Amino acid sequence: MARRRAEGLPAGFYDRPVVQVAEELIGCTVSYGECSGAIVETEAYHDSEPACHAFVGLTPRTETLFGPPGRAYVYRSYGIHALLNAVCEPEGVGAAVLIRALEPIAGIEQMRARRAASGAQRLGDADLCSGPGKLTQALGIELTENGGDLRTGPIRIEPRSEGWDHPVVIGTRIGITKAVELEWRFSVAGNRNVSRPRP
DNA sequence: CATGGGATTGACT
DNA sequence: GTCAATCCCATGC
Fold first, then answer.
1. Alpha-carbon torsion A60, A63, A65, A66, what sign?
2. Stated in angstroms, how far is A156 CA from C8 C1'?
3. Mean pLDDT of A92-120
4. pLDDT category of residue A13 using cuts at 50, 70 and 90
5. Does the pLDDT of residue A112 top 70, yes or no?
6. Strand partners, A83
7. A36 with A30: CB under 8 angstroms?
8. A71 touches strand B (CB under 7 A)
9. Which residue minimizes Cα–C1' distance to C11?
10. pTM beyond cutoff 0.85
11. What confidence score (pLDDT) does residue A161 get?
12. DSSP letter for each residue of A50-107
């Protein structure tokens, strides 16, 4: 059997309940330009709960969220950071998985250079992509990538490599003020790239 | 058209 | 532990 080529996840992967997709994205690979990393932390958001941007309904901002699954939703947070999400569930449902942290795989020196250019002082490997704002900085992802197809790029998400076997920890989402009780955060147990606070 | 609030990070007490 | 930086956009007048 031919070795699997690096290619996007199947088209139907994202067209499922967002919490399930969030868990299964752990271990998958995000790549952009020369840089790539394994997803070690995610959170799910759904228009049925108030922490989700799509809770307010269809607006210019949430257009991507309500669009077809498998696209990138990139938005600016706190006026400073770009945050990367994977749109899920059928078109017409506003749901997405926030990619919160990566374990760097390729392009590490470029990641370090970009993080340094953004003013970061701590630049160990575990400081490059250990947060949703950090990883977009490190990869150089901007708001212009909003709406891009995650199967074909420029931002691409690829399946887990064979033999991925790390326990996943479930917990509550971080940094939100509404629907704080939902346990929709997933992370790789003990991984140093997971953002703080660790579950 | 004015206002206010963030799915964050880094620096500082 | 606290706090400011800084942009987009939803909301309300």
1. positive
2. 25
3. 97
4. very high
5. yes
6. A75
7. yes
8. no
9. A56
10. yes
11. 87
12. TTSGGGG-S-TTTHHHHS-TTBEEEEEETTTEEEEEEE-SSTTS-EEEEEEEEEEEE-
Shortest-distance nucleotide from A178 CA to C1' = B7
Percent of chain A with pLDDT over 70: 97
pLDDT digits (tens, 9 = 90+) for A58-81: 999 999 999 999 999 999 999 999
The pLDDT value given to residue A3: 53
Which chain B positions have some atom within 7 A of a protein CB? 5-11
Q: CA-to-CA distance for A121 and A166, rounded, in angstroms?
A: 30
Instruction: Report the helix count and the strand count for chain A, using DSSP H and E.
Output: 4, 8
Give strand pairing partners of A77.
A81
Exposed, middle or buried, A9 (CB in 10 Å: 0-12/13-18/19+)? Answer: buried
Q: Is the CB of A142 under 7 A from strand C?
A: no
Find how far residue A29's CA is from the centre of its chain. 10
CA dihedral for A159, A180, A53, A140, sign (positive or negative)? negative
pLDDT at A6 over 70: no
Distance CA A119, CA A109 (A): 15
Give the single-character DSSP code of A18. Answer: H
By residue count, chain A amounts to 199
pLDDT computed for residue A8 by the predictor: 81
